[in-house]
Design a protein that fits this description.
about 150 residues; alpha+beta; three-stranded antiparallel beta sheet; two-stranded antiparallel ribbon; elongated
């Protein structure tokens, strides 16, 4: 995780933060193509009075994945739960990340559907610029010189 995605970054640096790229797993603009993101983000904003950010979003799905595994295992036996986790196959439309879903590799135990995305700070907000099919804005490159910035 880059410091540019920390919740205090943009309020601190303001427009000086524009144009930086950040590897991320979440951005609020994903709601443009994935309505679930907007629904969850709005519930979060109402409860905490701040926008949902990447750190929260990365942690959001984990309890649901575990609950799903426990429900399918019908047990708290560790081996049964591990087997259920390894059988997990949650489609992308049921998660708030821009991934194809959640499914674990039996050897590495990593989510084989997880992928990175790039956001760029524009107008003091994070916008998805890659992958292009999830992008809400085009990236700005090269960055404007300091004297030419808004």
């Amino acid at each position: 995780m880059a410091g540019y995605i920390e919740s205090d970054y943009l309020p601190t640096v303001k427009a000086d933060g524009n144009y930086f790229f950040v590897r991320s797993t979440f951005a609020l603009d994903l709601a443009n193509k994935k309505p679930l993101v907007g629904q969850v983000a709005e519930l979060y904003r109402k409860k905490y009075n701040i926008p949902m950010g990447e750190n929260t979003a990365r942690s959001f799905s984990a309890p649901f994945v575990l609950a799903d595994a426990f429900n399918r295992a019908k047990s708290t036996d560790p081996e049964a739960v591990v087997n259920a986790l390894l059988a997990t196959d949650i489609p992308g439309d049921q998660i708030i990340n821009p991934w194809k879903g959640i499914r674990f590799d039996p050897e590495s135990h990593q989510n084989i559907y997880a992928s990175a995305m790039l956001v760029q700070i524009q107008d003091q907000a994070y916008y998805t610029v890659w992958p292009f099919d999830a992008a809400s804005r085009s990236f700005v490159w090269p960055f404007p010189t300091w004297k030419d910035r808004k």
